[in-house]
């Protein structure tokens, strides 16, 4: 028995598909429900594809709202679908493909009536005289839907009723026989299941007309278990509550609209996607993923909205920067209007007040003039526009919804709403905000009140509100108070930088730069924008140029600008030497001005560059920065000397020291750390725990860092890199590769040279571990080029050398591998990077084994495994033990190989390193069970093959042609032929048959 390969699940829906299949298996029925655009049809399509792959018959019935007005439309479409899908035995051997729509995320389709008409018209109209006494004559059997032969077994009255339903026969004055029609539909479905299992998908069950619903309920009640049904429903929340004047198509029985009485077990709600899944969705559709967090907030996880926003960004004339507002026009805005437009006017008015409030609640909205607030908000919640908590708090499900409500409202509506809210809010800070937003004309007295409110919000620790109020205070300042407005714009920009509100920082800076501001004010505003740009510094060159010009003659500002340039030179330009020069100048200028905090920051950047460049002064410079920090507490831990000290300990594999120091920072970050500080903390912890082999903790910390990154709308590249490391340690190699690829894409979009190199390293390492050697070699060569272009010398900061050496060796490039190891070893010895040398020893041992010096290789690997164990690096130790087991297999020492493998498995099991444990359970290359027919001579000959040669030999020995082997190993046919010649010579064989014999254990 063979199992058909499963179609991949839509992004983020694997678990839901599993639940769907379980429901279909146990109950035979499943109802997919959720708001418009959430991807219900995608899930149903995936299940239909899997059913078809298993050989099942798939019937797809798509409906439109107009079908509700046409009696029998859905049932007629179902009959037409059966006729189009099935060819009955004896009428032909081919079976047309099931009419499943193309994989359109939120697909459309013809209405039921249109589908039925298409089926009927395909064979032409009925001829006159085709009816006799209400029963179809034999002359009609070859026309219309009946030409398929599906309905040959129906009794005359049932065939007549079905023909009337499908408009292939005139309808009598009394209409069709309802009992005959019921029995006919039921008999058609039952006959269909005699051919094998059937999956019926009804997409848009809420649009099925009442007559069809009654027919289908009866038919499904009589259907055998081999007929399984998936119904897709988008609930209609307003039909009953807010449109009493309109005649409702819904029966009083709440279950009458369904095709069966659903139970909790077969109702599956399709949830919105998480932020990380939105990122994957964007990548899947080849859309920019670097703004995944902000797109998730705007869309609320609704895939249709997220893709619309993503396409808006992709179609923008110029790339949207992190410091700019998202492009929420065009298709994205139209989709939001569609969702909101379904709501009655009263509900939309209530939602507008909620959108204007800072902390909307049902009580607040009611007090502001909406007496039906609770009922309106309950209806909006049923429509998945908002969610209501126990205390009545209101949260919009997607940021695009309140934005669109406010955007589309006129000034008078907005002003009246803010004025009403200002009278009823219980917080003076919020009251001032609403009064300012309700006023059209700038007013100095009001602006001063707003500025005071911003200061109060700052003292409360609400930096986001403080930033918004500071911007509002500046915009409320009359133009005649130009100097005061400029001062408030500078305050607003810097407040936005503290709150990581890139959009407000850019808005304040743009306003200020359009005015007659002084050089120092212009520099401060530009620095605020640069500080909120995250990794995306590439498109801001003009900002740096003007900041340098305006800081001329101001030592303090010049020091601040040089510090930002030092960061830019390494992140965006990949030039650590230039970065070091700028950092040195910044530190000197700051020291001359008596600014220890800025001097400490500059020295920290300098120390980071000294380390990368392999200079001996790195630790001394870092010590100076730490001393300054002790006297002048830094504003945060990100880019602080203390966190760099921890990272140096991580690079040196002093992991316990690194973890202890990081844990000491926890109280500081929890008390007053910014979002960036918290992300830095969790990312560093994840890297430490990944290296230590504390896999569960690494995954947890990396997940927290990613969640915070996406929630804050920051560039996800660094967080995806960290998660790739954690997944490689203890999660899944496949997920690790996926996160590494995402990090590569995001880093390329941002122009972040540092994390581009790191993420490629993470990807190449996983590719190598999982046996995709050719691709790994290509990826790691790019890392080599990146690191050399950046003049990086210290091999402990990114340990790509040992990985590239192994990939080169696996591709039969032993000389280049040895040259690379010879190049890096003296540097590691000079800098005292002991664990880098251990990694080189592992790679060199593999080179020895490839040369046939397996005894020396085994001895070196044994020593290296012990050294990694003493260094507290269990995963590295386990990896060396796997390599040792493979060498022992080549030496035909099966017992020693098993011992090494068991020891590796024990190491990985204690660490919770699931993917490595699975790797240790696989059969290593060159496995044998004892002496073969060739005796000791054959064993010695096999040991002389390199890993690359052994892989090719096994493929060819198993029957692969040269072309097939070349395709599987990503080699040219000429390379395969040359390598086979060497294999034949080493094994002293002359044919493929002799090669297969030589490889037998």
Describe it.
This protein is mainly alpha-helical and 1001 residues long. It is 63% helix and 4% strand. The protein is built from 47 helices and 9 strands. Strands 2-5-6-1-7 form a 5-stranded parallel β-sheet. Strands 3-4 form a two-stranded antiparallel sheet. α10 (303-314) runs antiparallel to α11.
Describe the global form.
flat
Mean pLDDT: 84
Q: Given the helix and strand composition, which structural class is it?
A: mainly alpha
Low-pLDDT stretches: 1-5, 88-143, 240-255, 923-940
Annotation field: number of helices: 47
Task: Note the gap between the termini.
Answer: 30 Å
Rounded to an integer in angstroms, the radius of gyration calculated over CA atoms is 35 Å
User: How many strand units?
Assistant: 9
Helix content: 55-70%
Please outline the major beta sheet: 5 strands, parallel
Strand content: under 5%
Strand order of the largest sheet: 2-5-6-1-7
């Amino acid at each position: 028995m063979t199992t058909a390969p499963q179609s991949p699940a839509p992004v983020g829906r694997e678990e839901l598909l599993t639940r769907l299949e379980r429901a279909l298996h146990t109950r035979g029925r499943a109802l997919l429900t959720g708001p418009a655009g959430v991807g219900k049809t995608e899930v149903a399509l995936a299940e239909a594809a899997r059913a078809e792959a298993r050989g099942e018959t798939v019937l797809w019935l798509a409906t439109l709202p107009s079908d509700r007005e046409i009696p029998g439309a859905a049932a007629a479409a179902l009959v037409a679908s059966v006729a189009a899908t099935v060819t009955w035995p004896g009428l032909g051997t081919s079976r047309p493909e099931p009419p499943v729509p193309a994989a359109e995320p939120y697909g459309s389709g013809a209405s039921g009536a249109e589908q039925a008409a298409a089926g009927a018209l395909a064979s032409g109209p009925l001829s006159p005289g085709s009816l006799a006494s209400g029963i179809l004559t034999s002359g009609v059997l070859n026309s219309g839907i009946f030409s398929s032969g599906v309905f040959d077994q129906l009794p005359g009255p049932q065939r007549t009723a079905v023909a009337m339903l499908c408009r292939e026969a005139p309808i009598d004055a009394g209409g069709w026989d309802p009992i005959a029609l019921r029995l006919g539909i039921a008999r058609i479905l039952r006959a269909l299941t005699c051919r094998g299992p059937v999956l019926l998908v009804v997409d848009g069950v809420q649009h099925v007309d009442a007559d069809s619903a009654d027919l289908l309920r009866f038919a499904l009640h009589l259907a055998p278990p081999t007929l399984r049904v998936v119904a897709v429903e988008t609930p209609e929340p307003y039909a009953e509550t807010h449109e009493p004047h309109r005649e409702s198509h819904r029966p009083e029985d709440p279950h009458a609209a369904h095709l069966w009485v659903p139970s909790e077990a077969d109702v599956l709600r399709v949830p919105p996607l998480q932020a990380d899944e939105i990122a994957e969705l964007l990548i899947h559709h080849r859309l920019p993923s670097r703004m995944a967090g902000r797109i998730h907030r705007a869309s609320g996880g609704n895939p249709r909205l997220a893709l619309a926003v993503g396409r808006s960004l992709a179609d923008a004339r110029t790339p949207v920067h992190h410091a700019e507002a998202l492009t929420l026009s065009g298709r994205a805005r139209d989709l939001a209007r569609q969702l909101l437009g379904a709501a009655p006017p009263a509900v939309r008015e209530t939602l507008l007040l909620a959108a204007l409030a800072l902390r909307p609640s049902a009580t607040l909205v009611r007090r502001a003039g909406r007496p039906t607030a609770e009922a309106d908000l309950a209806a909006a919640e049923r429509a998945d526009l908002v969610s209501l908590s126990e205390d009545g708090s209101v949260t919009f499900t997607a940021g695009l919804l309140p934005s669109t409500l406010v955007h589309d409202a006129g000034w008078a509506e907005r002003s009246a709403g803010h004025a009403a809210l200002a009278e009823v809010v219980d917080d003076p800070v919020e009251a001032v905000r609403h009064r300012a937003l309700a006023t059209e004309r700038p007013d100095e007295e009001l602006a001063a009140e707003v500025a005071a409110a911003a200061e109060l919000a700052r003292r409360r620790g609400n930096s986001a509100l403080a930033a918004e109020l500071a911007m509002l205070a500046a915009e409320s300042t009359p133009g005649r108070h130009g100097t005061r407005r400029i001062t408030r714009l500078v305050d607003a920009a810097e407040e936005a930088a503290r709150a990581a509100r890139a959009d407000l920082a850019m808005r304040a800076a743009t306003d200020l730069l359009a005015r007659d501001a002084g050089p120092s004010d212009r520099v401060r505003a530009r620095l605020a924008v640069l500080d909120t740009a995250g990794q995306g510094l590439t498109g801001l060159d003009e900002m740096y140029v003007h900041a340098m010009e305006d800081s001329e003659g101001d030592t303090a500002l010049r020091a601040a600008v040089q510090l930002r340039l030092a960061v830019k030179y390494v992140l965006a330009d990949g030039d650590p030497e230039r970065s070091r020069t700028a950092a040195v100048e910044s530190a000197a200028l700051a020291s001359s001005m008596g600014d220890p905090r800025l001097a400490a920051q500059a020295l920290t950047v300098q120390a980071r560059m000294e380390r990368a460049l392999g200079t001996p002064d790195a630790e001394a410079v870092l010590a100076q920065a730490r001393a300054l920090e002790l006297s002048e507490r830094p504003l945060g831990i990100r880019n602080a000397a203390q966190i760099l000290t921890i990272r140096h300990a991580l690079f040196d594999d002093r992991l316990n020291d690194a973890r202890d120091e990081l844990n000491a920072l926890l109280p500081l970050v929890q008390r007053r750390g910014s979002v960036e500080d918290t992300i830095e903390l969790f990312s560093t912890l994840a890297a430490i725990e990944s290296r230590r082999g504390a896999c569960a903790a690494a995954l947890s910390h990396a997940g927290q860092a990613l969640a915070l990154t996406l929630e804050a709308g920051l560039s996800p590249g660094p967080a995806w890199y960290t998660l790739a490391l954690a997944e490689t340690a203890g999660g899944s190699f496949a997920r690790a590769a996926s996160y590494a690829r995402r990090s590569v894409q995001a880093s390329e979009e941002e122009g972040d040279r540092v994390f581009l190199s790191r993420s490629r390293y993470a990807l190449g390492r996983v590719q190598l571990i999982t046996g995709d050697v050719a691709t790994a070699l290509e990826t790691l060569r790019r890392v080599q080029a990146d690191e050399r272009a950046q003049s990086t010398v210290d091999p402990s900061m990114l340990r790509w050398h040992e990985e590239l050496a192994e990939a080169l060796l696996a591709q039969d490039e032993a000389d280049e591998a040895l040259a690379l190891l010879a190049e890096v070893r003296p540097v590691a010895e000079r800098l005292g990077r002991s664990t880098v040398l251990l990694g080189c020893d592992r790679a060199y041992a593999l080179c020895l084994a490839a040369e046939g010096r397996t005894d020396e290789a085994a001895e070196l690997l044994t020593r290296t495994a012990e050294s990694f164990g003493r260094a507290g690096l269990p995963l590295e130790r386990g990896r060396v033990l796997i390599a040792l087991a493979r060498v022992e297999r080549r030496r035909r020492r099966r017992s020693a190989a098993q011992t090494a493998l068991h020891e590796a498995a024990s190491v990985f099991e204690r660490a919770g390193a699931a993917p490595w444990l699975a790797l240790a359970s696989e059969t290593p290359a060159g496995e044998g069970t004892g002496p073969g027919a060739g005796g000791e001579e054959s064993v010695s000959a096999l040991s002389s093959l390199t890993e690359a040669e052994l892989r090719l030999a096994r493929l060819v020995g198993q029957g692969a042609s040269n072309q097939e082997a070349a395709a599987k190993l990503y080699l040219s046919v000429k390379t395969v032929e040359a390598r086979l010649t060497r294999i034949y010579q080493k094994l002293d064989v002359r044919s493929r048959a002799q090669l297969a014999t030589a490889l037998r254990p």
